[in-house]
Amino acid sequence: MSEVMIRVKDLVKKYNMYDQPIDRLKETLSLTKKCYHKEFVALNGLTFDVEKGDAVGILGKNGSGKSTLLKMITGVLTPTSGQLEINGVISAILELGTGFNMEYTGVENIYLNGTMMGYTREQMSSRIQDIIDFADIGDFINQPVKIYSSGMFARLAFAVASNVDPDILIVDEALAVGDTRFQIKCIDKMKSLKEKGTTILFVSHATEQIKRFCNKAIWIKDGIIEAQGESSEIADLYEDFMKYGTLDNQTDVRLKNKNQKEEEVVVEEDDGEFKMPINEDTLASIHEVKISRDKIRTFEDLEVEITYDIYREKIDSFLVGAAIYTPSRDYIFGPNTYLEKVEIPNTFGRHKVIYRIPRIPLLGGTYTIDVGIFTDESIVNLDYKTAICEFVIANKYFSEGKFYIEHEWKVIE
């Protein structure tokens, strides 16, 4: 029988909102008990269980209630009503700076966080070198954290939270401010903890990270649970909502993506030679993507030639993915070399692979291709090209829809 680490039942959190600060005092002193506030319900009746060893992704727009939920689970906030049961030691990374004394050095804050979690100074002393090594912020570890950048905060916070053997680890958007190498380091550490049975709550706006790392997901919308279940299914529902939920029609979606693509285009002179990047944090990049032809018919073959550069001696768990979309960003198909167990070059230098569809089953229409290079089962994105190629399928009329599905007809009588 599975052990429940977090049990949430009918959880509600309400706030009193005042138009002016003085209204709070007026309400407190009112002899007639006059109400000066409006009630805001941040969370309204959440119910779910998290079992031991689960990695649960928390999805939702900004303001949906994700951070409020995590603060109640960690004890920072008190529920207005409902039940909240926690079984085990929690280690959490919430907003940057939470749990830190700005005047203390990094080392002093390590001990401070350990004390707040119930560890003695001696217990933290046995862990401190591992924490310092993981944070990898050099001499800044002995400087007041008030001079830290957001990246340094994230490094130190994650190093402390993940190296104290927690039963439950909560990560709230901590990876968003880190560079690629830091993201890889954090994901590897979380994988290690998950394998040891640590329960993880992971908040991220990157749905691909939720799909690849988590086995379950919860989508919170306007303070209620919109959906919960298997991570990939819930992430797909959330992505569809984010694409189409506030747009009137497919034309608006197409226009939005076209504008976004134009904003992302950066023209650089490139003589085609392999060169090391100016940014030393860049581990790899997509150099070029070619398509065999841009006009084809159903059942003809299609090849996508992908050239990529690797700037490190070796990148473990390196993979290439290619995805087909409609112009309105309906996701058609997206395999990658990790899922299909295809070994590709992952060492220093320039490499080339070909993604081939021998008999494309798509029917008439325009389609685009995304190409990405990743590590860690597609959790960490090294480089991604959106709609880098476009092709059109045109046929004589022989069927309808988007796909041709093998089928047969039988006459019974």
From TrEMBL:
Pfam families: ABC_tran, Wzt_C. Signal peptide: none annotated. The keyword Nucleotide-binding applies. Residues 6-247 form the ABC transporter domain. GO terms for molecular function: ATP binding. The keyword Zinc-finger does not apply. Keywords: ATP-binding, Nucleotide-binding, Transport. It comes from the Bacteria. PANTHER family: TEICHOIC ACIDS EXPORT ATP-BINDING PROTEIN TAGH (PTHR46743:SF2). Belongs to the ABC transporter superfamily. This is ABC transporter ATP-binding protein. The lineage of its organism: Bacteria, Bacillati, Bacillota, Clostridia, Eubacteriales.
